[in-house]
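Hi everyone, sorry if this is the wrong subforum. Our group has a chain we'd like a structural model of before ordering constructs, and none of us has done structure prediction before. Sequence below.
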Amino acid sequence: MKYYIINSEGKEVSFDVTAKQKNKNGVMAFNVMAEDRSNYQYFVKNLAGKNYLSKDQVTWQKAPRVSSLDGLVNINESVKVYRGYKPSGLSNANAGELITDMPGKIVKVLTAEGAVVNQGDTLLILEAMKMENEIKAGCDGVVKTVNVEEGQAIESGHLMIEIEE
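Answer:
Right subforum, don't worry. Here is the predicted structure as tokens:
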């Protein structure tokens, strides 16, 4: 699952997380692929209702309790967390404008002009940095224009789809 974390100044970090099955000791392993394609493995275990994190299963740190699924508070700042998709309006665009942040190739267009879409619907697949990214609607509305076609190479900042709210 792709996660996007954005701080109050608009700085963004994204990463992919995949979980493995719990082992016989109840420890869950998570594989994390960062934006630079580096891979990390983390382990989580639950003891007495509290979660603990480890990189090596030897040293464990207590994980902070999360009271909201869409944001986190760090000692220095608060951040917004988006699971699976990032609303398009965060990329210096309106909520109804899907603008690419990086160059890539359109793999598949899953909508057409006049289609009614809901926030979170996958509208197209963009291949960038050797990964296929689902581009999702940032709002409910009707597709006003589709400015891409399958196989098209696009540059950063390209307006792919407009949605009329």
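For your construct planning: The two ends are 27 Å apart (CA to CA). The chain has a mean pLDDT of 80.
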